[in-house]
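Here comes my example:
=====
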Amino acid sequence: MLNRFSRTELLFGKEGMEKLHNSRVAVFGIGGVGGYTVESLVRGGIGSIDIIDNDKVSLTNINRQIYATTSTIGKYKVDVAKERILDINPDIIVNSHNVFYSAETSSMFDLSEYDYVIDAIDTVSGKLELVVKATEANTPIISSMGAGNKLNPARFEVSDIYKTSVCPLARVMRQELKKRNIKKLKVVYSKEIPMSPSITEAYGASEGKNSCCSEILPGKHRVPGSNSFVPPVVGLIIAGEVIKDLLELK
């Protein structure tokens, strides 16, 4: 009998689809990158998903985030995401957490409960905390490096953090993870040299304050520029890696 995953089953077989159905994945951060990761995982047959984000949809999210539309402005992203997820697959288990992930809130999550963890967090401190906790729990994790200020989606690649270059965020992560004795981390990053958008007063104390860029450039709220085609590609690459890893595909 045909079902919503019949075309995927042609590639992965019944056993593969069963494995995905029995997998539980957590996506920390469901913005430009994480939102598309969630979308692809749900459409790929994951049976249980946790979404973690405390942000509301804003007007400036519309250019790149899958949950951002005129009608969802002002709503919590996890609420909008959960409604869409269940509309795609009513049988999936969705656990939504309206939480800003940090050292102060990390104890709310037992990462050993997940088969895979996705880091699409916007802050360096949150990313580091999540990687450390996932490593301690021996749970596979993949991390998104900088997608802002990039124009070429074809330049993104999958690598270990210690084999990365050029990306400013990856450089900071390498340095900080080495201090924490983290030996490896699967990441998606680009060697494209990021553009440098001008600092604008319009964003100053709001959108830019929690971004990776503002942590790399302390004291400056330099809001990363973004577009409609780079963050989604990063999110889809991450989802593909997660599904392939869960199915132990090359």
Summary: The beta strands are 24-28, 48-52, 93-97, 116-119, 141-144, 156-160, 186-190.
